[in-house]
Amino acid sequence: ERQHMLKFVKYINERGGHAVISELSKPPVEYGSLKEMFQKLFEHEVKVSASINDLVHISLQEQDYATHNFLQWYVAEQIEEEALARTILDKINLIGDDKG
After folding, report:
1. Which tens digit of pLDDT belongs to each residue from 34-43?
2. How many CB atoms lie within 10 A of CB 45?
3. Among 8, 18, 19, 6, which residue's Cα sits nearest to residue 67?
4. Which of the ends of the chain has fewer CB neighbours closer than 10 A, N or C?
């Protein structure tokens, strides 16, 4: 995730902007179950995808095609991230609550 952020920072700075990285809140470290943890992960990935889609929309409204092109990598990456989280959740749901 850090590499993804740094890619954004580099792009913004190369385009004449000044990227500022705000403080991130610490994520939870305890969950009620494995399923809950991966459900939260999936929900987070969906939220990230929505944010990237918002940026894509703005880039098109502004006719900033260079940024639109840059963001396509993130769009593709999020498709993979959501699919991975969804696959893990599907497997957990398939197994159910059987603990062995």
Report:
1. 999 999 999 9
2. 19
3. 8
4. C
